[in-house]
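Bumping my old thread because nobody answered last time. Still need a sequence for this structure:
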């Protein structure tokens, strides 16, 4: 079974409206749905909010149209389970839809082709794979998380042309230009968490919130959860992070040994609304794999890793980075002690280098952004 150029156009519309859910539906996927009769769109809907109705149910209840015999385009295989909402397959059958075009299959073990079988058993014609690559890219976070229950990690770095992330005395404001930094704030609104090491907190005293004009403090839904990796719980109480933990959800990942030995510090941090997450230790530091499992269990499906160089190295060594956004600014600052994006001990031989693929290059005024997968 195949599809036409027109089917692709309708699916593209479904993809476009699915994108409106970005940052609001995690850890669910972004899903869009368009219903067509006599070559005209008669209704559409998308998954708007985590816990809310799915795209198909929204599209089929948005108006009083007669859906009998209509064709439905949906970016994800319709679900067939009772989750927070009833199965989408039920309403598709109930409304008399006669043909369904699906973008990608849903690897959720509760669905996993069963949604399609149910529709076919009900006599509905189902075509899969329309705009598959595009939809997989859009839902890369969901597709990893639903299968592994670990967060998708996007490592973002920003360096000068000579490969430095700060001057030799630690000044780093700013390496990249305003446009590049705006993209970082957008990423913070799209990922569920932003993670940094304690070194970055002591050096930069960052806020790690999302500061885009159109969504200031009032819209807290799209503020990322701030996660600080701080094995010894040494974060200063007067840091911006601690002081604003009542306004922005903050998790401090500490080592199990610290949890036992520093209970008064831990209690003090909790009184500032800092959530303490005790993790296993590896070589005296928080074990990143254990952290990933625990954040995944908390429902956190995506992380923006914002350094510093030590934490970046630890994440890469642990095999926990999925994708990299590396900004390069046309500046030279020199200094043999100035840090670069990835610290740690490093490899001995070029043949041991971490290989990157799917390279894409973008330009923001004079800054260059290299996107790649690990
Ligand atoms: C769809 N259409 O728009 C979405 C689907 O807890 P629930 O009820 O929201 O179910 C969440 C799961 O349903 C999610 O893990 C994914 O498998 C599927 N999401 N399915 O048919 C939608 N958002
Ligand atoms: Zn559904």
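Sorry it took so long. Here it is:
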């Amino acid at each position: 079974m195949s599809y036409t150029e027109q089917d692709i156009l309708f699916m593209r519309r479904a993809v476009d409206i699915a994108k409106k859910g970005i940052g609001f539906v995690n850890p669910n996927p972004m899903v869009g749905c368009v219903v067509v009769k006599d070559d005209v769109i008669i209704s559409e809907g998308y998954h708007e909010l985590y816990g809310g109705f799915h795209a198909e149910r929204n599209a089929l209840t948005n108006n009083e149209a007669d859906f009998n015999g209509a064709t439905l385009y949906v970016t994800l295989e319709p679900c067939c389970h009772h989750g927070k909402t009833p199965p989408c397959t039920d309403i598709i059958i109930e409304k008399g839809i006669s043909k369904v075009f699906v973008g990608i299959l849903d690897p959720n073990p509760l669905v996993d082709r069963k949604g399609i079988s149910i529709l076919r058993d009900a006599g509905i014609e189902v075509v899969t794979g329309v705009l598959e690559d595009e939809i997989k890219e859009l839902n890369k976070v969901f597709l990893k998380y639903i299968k592994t229950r670990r967060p998708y990690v996007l490592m973002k770095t920003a360096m000068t042309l000579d490969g430095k992330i700060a001057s030799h005395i630690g000044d780093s404001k700013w390496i990249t230009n305003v446009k590049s930094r705006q993209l970082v704030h957008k990423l913070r609104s799209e990922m569920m968490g932003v993670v940094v090491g304690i070194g970055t907190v002591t050096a930069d005293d960052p806020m790690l919130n999302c500061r885009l004009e159109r969504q200031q403090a009032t819209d807290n839904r799209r503020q990322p959860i701030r996660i600080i990796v701080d094995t010894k719980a040494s974060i200063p109480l007067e840091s911006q992070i601690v002081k604003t933990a009542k306004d922005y959800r903050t998790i401090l990942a500490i080592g199990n040994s610290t949890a036992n030995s520093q209970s008064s510090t831990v209690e003090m941090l909790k009184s500032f609304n800092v959530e303490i997450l005790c993790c296993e230790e590896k070589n005296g530091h928080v074990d990143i794999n254990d952290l990933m499992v625990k954040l995944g269990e908390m429902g956190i499906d995506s992380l923006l890793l914002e350094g510093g160089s030590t934490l970046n190295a630890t994440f890469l060594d642990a095999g926990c980075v999925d994708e990299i956004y590396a900004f390069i600014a046309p500046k030279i600052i020199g200094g043999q002690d100035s840090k670069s994006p990835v610290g740690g001990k490093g490899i001995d031989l070029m043949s041991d280098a971490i290989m990157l693929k799917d390279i894409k290059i973008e330009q923001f005024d004079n800054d260059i952004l290299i996107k790649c997968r690990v």
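The mean pLDDT is 95. Let me know if any region looks off to you.
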